[in-house]
Specification:
Layout (H helix, E strand, L loop, with lengths): L8 E2 L3 E5 L13 E8 L2 E12 L7 E8 L8 H14 L6 E7 L3 H10 L2 E5 L5 E7 H5 L1
Parallel strand pairs: 5-6
Antiparallel strand pairs: 1-2, 2-3, 3-4, 4-5, 6-8, 7-8
Helix pairs in contact: 1-2
Amino acid sequence: MARASRAGRSNGRTDLHCAHTHLGNARAGWLAWYALAADEGVPGRVLVASVGFHGPLQEGEVEVGHSELPQFQSRGYAGEMVGALTAWALAQPSVLRVVAETECANYASLRVLAKVGFVVCGPGQEPGWTRLELGRSSRDT
């Protein structure tokens, strides 16, 4: 699995890089990340997906979101990225839980979040959306 790192990491399949490494230690890691991967028939690495947090940490909670380019969906990149970034966030002393919101009809996103360990905790802020969370205690069990 790729690990979140300001400098970026590689597992031979996917590189996960922070897009804002110039901001310094206090903010680096809390903004946008992107994934580069080797793709058959394409030389070098190509952009496959992005993941990041929606806004700053508030009362021990941070919201994560992800997006993949259509041609790279259903290959495990989203789960790998969300899992790595969620683990990184929960390792920070100030983070108690990571939340995500997705449309109830977005089965692919719900599946990604469930595989990482998120559980439904209520309705989302928008009609037709659901809110999921993963806390330290959920991660430890």
